[in-house]
Amino acid sequence: MEFALKPTPELEELNYVGLIDGLWYLNExxxxxxxDARVVWGRGHDxxxxxxxxxxxxxxxxxxALWAYPQxxxxxxxxxxxxxxxxxxxxxxxxxxxIKVYIDGLLESTTAAMQEPYVKNLNLPxxxxxxxMNIFDQSRLSKxxxxxxxxxxxxxxxxxxHAIGDRGVHEALNAFDDSWISGTRHRMxxxxxxxxxxxxxxxxxxxxxxxxxxxxxxKPSARGNIExxxxxxxxxxxxxxxxxxxxxxxxxxxxxxDVSTPNPFIGIQNxxxxxxxxxxxxxxxxxxxxxxxxxxxxxxVVGSLxxxxxxxxxxxxxxxxxxxxxxxxxxxxxxxxxxxxxxxxWAEDQNLVDDATCQILEDSYYYGSCSFDHYCNAYP
Length: 380
Hints:
Helix content is 32%, strand content 16%.
């Protein structure tokens, strides 16, 4: 498998073209910062990002979460990850400062680690108790955290742990508890099944709860699918967004794109439409902005509009804070996206520019052309 997935020139070029297109799509959706949640460095994904950075075409702030391969030998992999660490890049907004670890699998395949057996039994080989599986177990995760959250003079990774089942969530929190030191900003993502006894541990351990609700499968209307897997009682609090937020956890909303759309307005719409697990519009906006900036260790420069911060902002066509618009937030259209004061996206026929600016944009390598009446037509 390692040999089959080894980087080739053809694959590297496909990665490059895909990244350029993807960056444009992110900017079109108003995204200026991303945490790339699984950078498969064995296939050269990080090198593709570095190439785009050097070319001046990286139009987001990017924190890379380097994947901890479950099949690699620990000591060798830990040293390799240390060698890749980078928290400053003078050429662009690119940092390799996170580690991605999977503690379990997925609910749909009954591989997410659960405290009690699934209702559905797929009779998967090697899983005899029908309670899912560990990809990293608690002790191995603790080892990686201890070795990588602080090393050298002042280096250290923040961890991003995939945890879906309630047993996986509990064991990941145990690993963070066992390895706790001050100053970390570790986070756990997905959190589809969480026991109430673990809600307040996120705040106590300063572990960020990263949740996705943009996908249709996360809506309360899709709960029947979850009931078929774990039963009605456990499905009732599928993705307990409000419960974790009420326990004073630091909560972020994200997309897990391309599992779900990166459109934050669909995520906000869904976050306020979850019945007893809903949050308010203002809270959902903060989860996508200042809370996410905190998780990326950049809340001092972005995440809110304030004097002295960098000018990362978007212009939209809807006042999403107006209560009269709560039912149409998902239809919000981005008109302009600005990164550090530089325009990286504008909607077609929305940005009228003068002669001089039009020529500058036409000469730029990543902008398109200007139409006769000087409306910009942009292409990646």
